[in-house]
Automatic annotation (TrEMBL):
Keywords annotated in UniProt: Oxidoreductase
Pfam families in UniProt: Acyl-CoA_dh_2, Acyl-CoA_dh_N
Keyword Oxidoreductase found: yes
Disordered, as annotated region: 408-427
Organism: Ancylobacter crimeensis
Protein name (Swiss-Prot/TrEMBL): Acyl-CoA dehydrogenase family protein
Protein family per UniProt: Belongs to the HpaH/HsaA monooxygenase family.
Alphabetized InterPro entries for the sequence: Acyl-CoA_dehydrogenase (IPR050741), Acyl-CoA_DH_C (IPR013107), Acyl-CoA_Oxase/DH_mid-dom_sf (IPR046373), AcylCo_DH-like_C (IPR036250), AcylCoA_DH/ox_N (IPR013786), AcylCoA_DH/ox_N_sf (IPR037069), AcylCoA_DH/oxidase_NM_dom_sf (IPR009100)
Location of the Acyl-CoA dehydrogenase/oxidase N-terminal domain: 36-129
Presence of the UniProt keyword Oxidoreductase in the record: yes
Record-annotated Acyl-CoA dehydrogenase C-terminal domain positions: 248-383
């Protein structure tokens, strides 16, 4: 085994990376991750935005890592990307979350059959340009969008308001879901500095506070025709991809929890009269708590990387020329990420709570910021509700039912006044 192969994850007992070349791929990024980690707690406590960390990642080529080598990237596979995201999340999960939609857009460009669009966006991504999100509408309809793209004498313009616009404050572009002139579902891309775009960091959630998941309004924002894409043409495993992204982020938070609780236990000098050792670092019960947390983080990472393999198969099926096989691969990727979601969530939520059992009451002091891990995990885990995932997986196991291709959140259409009595009569 070479020196390169024996360093990094393996020596840290997180297991081998997802490929023989992973350590070489990760090596240039690790000093950046370490630099990001140094300021993570202070940024969280002071609600400092993550402009600088994202700039460091851009300069290192991280935001283009999935691009083919000939297009200016590293040709990273999806399992390799997932492992890199775990490492980044161990440094600061806010940074990872702020780049979530960017990597989703990269995935979409790698899947597109529009050669002109692909060439245009590969150049932008290779140059370090990033994309944020603007899809969810607070109180919007379950189907369709209130935000609209309309034709004017001067060209296409978009008007509307979006919430959860994660990462847009840090990005060069915004990926925006809209209703077209005939009510069709479209996505459009506009620059964040375009006239009429107003991004407000009003996210008031208790977790992921630096992800800038606030409100963005669009007032007569001009849209280039070549930046309009039918929603049906976006990459087919997007739901699985965005969930895998959360799995990797959660696994990384698990590593961060492990590192911080281990460091705090090692440094702790106070003990109890009924403890099992003169120091916490020698107390078998305390060590068992730390070991349990580390085991949870290890398992979460292994599960996330296994799920990433299913997405790699979905990506490769896109170019195999077998539509039925592609659909099946997409559905299996969705199932694998659903199976992983509830398990990984439970593992890391438990670890982020249990860490306090290894320490004293002083560990709850706000300046230590140890509560941020639970808050971040709880916030991430509230996306894509996990209560539905076990049912979907169980329906597949029992009845062979494939998961829904895509899902939305919003207000359902009003039901007819006689709908409920009719349903009851049918029962």
């Amino acid at each position: 085994m070479s020196q390169t192969e024996s360093e990094g994850q393996i020596e840290s007992a997180w297991g081998a990376g997802p490929s023989a070349r992973y350590e070489a791929l990760a090596e240039p990024f690790r000093p950046v991750f370490a630099r990001i980690a140094e300021g993570a707690r202070a940024r969280e406590l002071n609600r400092t935005r993550v402009h600088e960390p994202i700039r460091w990642l851009k300069e290192a080529g991280f935001t283009a890592v999935r691009l083919p080598v000939e297009a200016g990237g590293q040709g990273a596979s999806l399992p390799e990307l997932a492992n890199l995201l775990i490492e980044l999340s161990a440094a600061d999960s806010n940074v990872t979350q702020a780049l979530r939609v960017h990597f989703g857009v990269v995935e979409d460009i790698l899947n597109t059959g529009d050669d002109a669009r692909r060439a245009r966006w590969l150049l932008r991504i290779a140059a370090g340009e990033t994309t944020g999100s603007a899809w969810t509408e607070a109180g919007g309809p379950l189907e369709g969008f209130g935000t609209r793209l309309t034709e004017t004498a001067g060209g296409l313009v978009v008007n509307g308001t979006k919430y959860y616009t994660t990462g847009s404050l840090y990005a060069d572009w915004i990926d925006l879901g809209v209703a077209g002139p005939q009510g069709e579902e479209l996505s459009v891309f506009v620059r964040t500095d375009a006239p009429g775009v107003a991004i407000v960091d009003d996210w008031d959630g208790f977790g992921q506070i630096a992800s800038a998941s606030g409100t963005t309004t669009f007032t007569d924002v001009p849209v280039a025709r070549e930046e309009v894409v039918p929603d049906a043409e976006r990459f087919r495993y997007s739901a699985a991809f965005y969930q895998l992204y959360h799995l990797a982020t959660l696994a990384g938070i698990g590593r961060a929890v492990t590192a911080e609780v281990a460091g705090a236990v090692k440094a702790r000098t106070r003990t109890y009269t009924h403890a099992n050792g003169p120091r916490s670092a020698a107390d078998p019960q305390v060590l068992a708590v730390v070991g349990r947390i580390r085991g949870a983080a290890y398992a979460a990472g292994a599960i996330a990387l296994k799920a990433a393999e299913s997405l790699q198969r979905a990506f490769e099926s896109r170019f195999a020329g077998d539509e039925a096989a592609e659909e099946r691969a997409n559905a299996i990727a969705e199932l694998e990420t659903a199976q992983a979601q509830t398990v990984v969530t439970n593992l890391i939520l438990d670890g982020a709570t249990t860490l306090f059992d290894a320490l004293g009451a002083s560990a709850t002091r706000a300046p230590l910021g140890l509560d941020r891990h639970w808050r971040n995990v709880r916030t991430l885990s509230s996306h894509n509700p996990r209560i539905y995932k076990d049912r979907i997986v169980g329906d597949f196991a029992v009845n062979g039912t494939l998961p829904p291709y895509q899902w939305r959140i919003g207000q359902p259409h009003p039901q007819p006044a006689d709908a409920e009595p009719a349903r009851q009569a049918a029962e």
